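Hi C.,

You asked whether I'd gotten around to modeling the 102-residue construct. I have! Everything is below, sequence then structure, no commentary in between.
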Amino acid sequence: MIAVEVVYALADKQKLLRLSLPYGTTMRQAAEQSGMQAHFPGLDLESSPLGIFGKAVAKPQERVLEDGERVEIYRPLIADPKEVRKQRAARAAQAKADEEGA
């Protein structure tokens, strides 16, 4: 058996569950067996991105866990980070232009 943690967080609520699972358990299996859906209704564990200690894993259904690892369930992105940065830079440039023109 191995000991792992499964975590999920919203802006106002977070949950960490400690599990004892058989050797050979994958990340996706651990997330599904965690029971996290009981704490977060509507959480879709089949399609949620997963990671270990802050690093996303491309194929969590294949990644076998090791003792002591923490599986993180990620929320889907609401906005594209590149687009958000681009918009912020455009607003800053416009504010600077307005300042210089005033």
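If it helps when you're writing up: The longest helix spans residues 81-101.

Thanks,
B.
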